[in-house]
């Protein structure tokens, strides 16, 4: 089974395009950062969803905790993988090389140090492919969570639709 990859897009606020910060869940099922929503409402002079323009009846909406947690994990992972690009000993140096003798990523300063004298190095792009596989394994539990979340969201969308139809039935 092919595993879906999830991207930054899944965690981006449709207003600020950043990773969600305290996303709130609107009745229309769209999620927006709380601060973005407040700003949008202020600028508009009326309360509506920035995505579908549906009127918002409430002033305060609940925080979308599942999404919030997912965003936090995603961000932590991003930061961690950013940090992993840099040499632990020479913090400003990118790990550009892979030392074949020590089987580890090294920076240009490491390469020239005594520690790796006469060692063989290969460009990191070759070594990165292997590391990607490793990362994929680590990400699987998070991916599953996201899939579940999407499923729940779809179900609640359907329920909302169902309710709408029922309400229409009562009125017409
Ligand atoms: Zn936002
Ligand atoms: Zn909406
Ligand atoms: Zn180094
Ligand atoms: Zn070495």
UniProtKB/TrEMBL annotation:
Q: What InterPro entries does the record tag this protein with? A: TRIM/RBCC, Znf-RING_euk, Znf_B-box, Znf_RING, Znf_RING/FYVE/PHD, Znf_RING_CS
Pfam families, alphabetized: zf-B_box, zf-RING_UBOX
The RING-type domain extends over 13-53
KW Metal-binding (keyword) present? yes
Which terms does the record give in the GO molecular function aspect? zinc ion binding
Kindly list any coiled-coil regions of this protein: none
Name of this chain's protein: Nuclear factor 7, brain-like
Gene symbol?
Answer: LOC116223799
């Amino acid at each position: 089974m092919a595993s879906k990859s999830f991207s930054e897009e899944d965690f981006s606020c449709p207003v600020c395009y950043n990773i969600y910060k305290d996303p709130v869940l609107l009745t229309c099922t769209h999620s927006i950062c709380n601060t973005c929503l407040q700003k949008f409402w202020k600028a508009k002079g009326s309360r509506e969803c920035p995505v579908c323009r549906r009127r918002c009846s409430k002033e305060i909406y609940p925080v979308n905790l599942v999404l919030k947690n997912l965003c936090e994990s995603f961000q932590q992972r991003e930061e961690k993988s950013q940090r992993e690009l840099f040499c632990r000993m020479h913090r400003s140096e990118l790990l550009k090389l892979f030392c074949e003798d020590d089987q580890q990523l090294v920076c240009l300063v490491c390469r020239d140090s005594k520690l790796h004298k006469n060692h063989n190095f290969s460009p990191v792009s070759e070594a990165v492919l292997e590391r990607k596989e490793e990362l994929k394994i680590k990400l699987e539990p998070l991916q599953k969570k996201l899939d579940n979340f999407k499923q729940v969201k779809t179900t609640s969308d359907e329920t909302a639709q169902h309710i709408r139809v029922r309400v229409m039935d009562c009125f017409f």
